Amino acid sequence: MAARIIDGKKVAEEIRTEIRAGTSALASKGIVPGLAVIIVGEDPASISYVTGKERACSENGLRSFEHRLPDSVSQAELLATIRACNVDPDVHGVLVQLPLPEHINEHAVMAAIDPDKDVDGFTPVNVGRLVLDHPCYLPCTPAGVVELIKRSGVETSGRRAVIVGRSNIVGKPLMNLLVRRDLNATVTVCHTGTRDLASHTREADILIACAGRAGLIDGTMIKSGACVIDVGVNRVEDHRSARGFRLVGDVDYASALEVSGWITPVPGGVGPMTITMLLANTLRAARAVCGEA
Q1: Measuring CA to CA, how many Å separate 53 from each of 58, 150, 275?
Q2: Where would you tag: which of 7, 190, 228, 240 has the fewest CB atoms within 10 A of its CB?
Q3: Does residue 115 have a pLDDT over 80?
Q4: What CATH code is carried by the domain that includes residue 38?
Q5: To the nearest 10°, the Cα dihedral for 176, 196, 150, 117?
């Protein structure tokens, strides 16, 4: 039996409907959730992503504050911009778009963001809170993955979850989320040093691919009936496409579709969830201002 497709666009819209209700309720109290986005340079992918965030804010009752800085900006100037956002009462969430130029110390920049406005969940304080299972803003893509799993009715308690990829943005936070008592999964993290990757992935009830390598996992590496979440977004050449490429995940979709119980497509799976969870975190930060969090 072919897998059930987990429609990330549909789930994201369900959550955005909840967000719009939340922003409307706050607006009646004179509070509009505000997200400040700081972008350095003219990277096309970053600009496109930031534009998408601004549009999502507008469509869901949030305000966006954009700070575009040149590639030549000094670290001191960038940190000053962050500090200004930290103390701005109209700003409830602060996000610095990555990557940053080489002359900027990324760790110093992340540490400068007020943890109570860190709606990306990347500051050292919020990373520590996540590991210790304290209340915090969850990194958006991992949080989106968890929502997809939950809202698809996939059981996690006592199940074996295998994560392929150990990045600070996706793999490691997912590990910490899935072992929490409310999800209660048994988690294995695979990476470039893992021997016989397939022997691990075939045991997964929940398989999450986030290695950034096109077609790394195919149907022969998947347990029958498993839930497969494909976080990867990779460009591969496609001369039939007007763009000259197409987007694929880390999972070979066609072969995985025949063996999985659930599967996310690429695009249209995890992708729509990331900005949605950013909006949800910003709404939560705004609620905290009026004591509702």
Answers
A1: 9, 24, 6
A2: 240
A3: yes
A4: 3.40.50.10860
A5: 30
- Whether residues 56 and 161 fall in one domain: no
At residue 290 the predicted structure's pLDDT band, cuts being 50, 70 and 90, is confident
Spell out the long-range contacts of 217-220 with Cβ–Cβ below 8 A and sequence spacing 24 or more: 217/164, 217/250, 217/251, 217/252, 217/256, 218/251, 218/252, 218/255, 218/256, 219/252, 219/254, 219/255, 219/256, 219/257, 219/258, 219/259, 220/255
Tell me the C-alpha distance between 191 and 166, whole Å.
Answer: 6
Tell me how far the alpha carbon of residue 102 is from its chain's centroid: 24
Which positions are catalytic? 53, 97, 120
The domain spanning residue 227 has which CATH number?
A: 3.40.50.720
Task: Record the tokens describing residue 218, joined without a space.
Answer: 């195919």
